[in-house]
UniProtKB/TrEMBL annotation:
Domain of life from the UniProt record: Eukaryota
Renumbered residue ranges of the record's region Disordered: 26-181
The CsbD-like domain, residue ranges: 78-126
Polar residues composition-biased segments: 107-119
Protein's recorded name: Mismatched base pair and cruciform dna recognition
InterPro entries in UniProt: CsbD, YjbJ_sf
Annotated source species: Trichoderma arundinaceum
Amino acid sequence: MSDNSNNKPSTLSSYVESATGAVQNALGNLTGNTGDKAKGEVRKENAEAEYDASQATAKLPGGTISSTGAFAKDDPRRTEGSWDQTVGAAKETLGGLVGNESLKSAGRQQNLEGQQQEAKGQLHDYGHGIGDRVQGTVGGAVSGLTGDREGQAHYESLHDKGKTQQRGAEHDIQKQGEANY
């Protein structure tokens, strides 16, 4: 079900399997063949599980690890921005508690700057991740056609790292979006 020989979960492969299962299920419905219907349903369920696995990531301090086993380190601006947000929020709270408008204003400003800094790091990681995925996919295909197994492994690793980096940024962006609602 995966896009390579290592049986790593693949989003594209899950889409193909889901479509194949839907067609097989539809044919079973048209012909009245319950076996084809059941096989089509199983195929669609397996595709859904593979899709979920292909999206799986775990955030760790300073980076992300994915279902492929790849680790991608976060852009330093993400960590620095998060730290500035925390310190800024603390200053803002303390300034409000003691009635110091200057400290409160400085804290608010530091918090906003931290948010911008973190966002820039997230965008960098997202864009860099997409670039690595594309380069890894194309390079892997070319290496596969030329029989360069070492090059193919290198580009597969680059693809996996890019996917992990992209998913880590997506995770954090989504988390921030949910926190703002």
